[in-house]
Design brief:
two-stranded antiparallel sheet, single chain, alpha+beta, 52% helix, 5 strands, 71 residues
């Protein structure tokens, strides 16, 4: 995946990079941030995209479960 393809995919998924951290700007999970995946010193773009999508969905599920427990 090229740098331009990665930037487009991240933007379409609702993420941006801020000081080396991937931040959710879609509004689906306010305050969610994570680090990119690295491979041999460089960012692994495919793994990073998969990771941030998976981790955001997991965080949304955790927040929904915590909210359900509170009633």
């Amino acid at each position: 995946m090229t740098s331009a393809e990665f930037a487009t995919a991240m933007r379409e998924a609702g993420f941006r990079v801020d000081h080396g951290r991937v931040v959710d700007v879609s509004g689906q999970c306010p305050g969610f941030t994570t680090l990119p995946s690295f491979n041999k010193g460089g960012v692994d773009r495919n793994a990073t995209l998969s990771k941030v999508l998976f981790e955001r969905e997991a965080e949304i599920s955790r927040r929904a479960a915590a909210e359900a427990e509170r009633g």
